[in-house]
Amino acid sequence: MGRFANLGHDLYEGRVSYDFVGRRRLWYCVSLLIVVLAVGGLVGRGLNLGLEFEGGTEFTVSTEGTQENADKFSEVAEQSGVDVGQVSASTSGSDKVIIQTQPLSQSDADLVEAAFEDAGASEVSQQSIGATWGAQILDRALLALGVFLALVVLFIWGYFREWKMSVAALVALAHDVVITVGVYAIVGFEVTPASVTGLLTILGYSLYDTVVVFDKVRENTRSYTTNTRSTYAELANLAVNQTLVRSINTSVTALLPVAALLFVGVVVVGTGPLKDLALSLFVGMAAGAYSSIFIATPLAVQLKERDAPVQAQAKRVMARRGKGPTKAERPEPVAGGSDPPSDATTRGPSGSDPVAGGPGGAPAAPGTPAAPVPSGASAGSSSPAARPTRSSAGRTQPQRRPRSQRGKGHR
To answer: What is the pTM of this model?
Structure first.
């Protein structure tokens, strides 16, 4: 846990960074593959609509809740002499079997119930559900979904003042819904009102996670136009990294209890609204955590990069990075930290006029008399006094005179 905490701190400070925004094409391809599989399962297998949406008669048979008994009573219903249509059989706990048929009249339902009792059922109960109730639930769910999406657009546009973030959030929500519905079709779970409730719940969770990341993006890019070190995309990518550990912690904390509910609903209970609700919550939360990191922010940045101010700021950042001298171009400092002296700038003992050169170390102009040569020195040679040295700090040091010249001029 300590290493994970250090990783979170490094991500927040920018010392460690994963390029989520720059690799957006990879994430798009992964999401496209998952969505294609989900749509393929939805088109190929279709949804297993529950009794509340299609209508029918449900029998609850009190017997040992095993798959063998479920298959047994399913055959009993088909051989009861009543047109029961397609029969669906499942276990409910350890002492019940659920048999569902098409809508039956009361007399036909009584005949099927009697056949179950003759086959060894200790107790049988029945209920008839019309399809109109399920249709009303579906209509209300679609209405709630439409109102929710409209409020999402208005909220994000009003809070962030950016319609591009609204579009990215809607795409992420659609991504989560399609994946969740596709998983329902692939695994064959029954779609019940509990499933619809879970689907609406995950929309709020996915939006919450996305808004948290968007808020950090807004904080990092508030004054991006004056930033000459990082582009808009880099600042947004930093925001994703800064919220990554929080997103992981929140998702794992939320998924663990939902996974426990799913296990109890599938393994222990076997049927009922618990597993339907838990499956939609589990798949939707996982998809929402993924989309808020890999889909919403990269898509918002991609749309934002089409703006002229963002493009101009990116050019300024790139130009600033290209101006700095490379390592090979930087002069190497000499010992003591001073710059190396110019070859044409050799000064005399007094540190004033350059020797054998023009002002500032430039070559003497034609016709200009050369500097006088000290007495006792021949042309082309220099006396010890004409050969000054430099200290490690770059200052000219006075030279000691020869013994033959010491004391002259001071008597």
So the answer is: 0.66
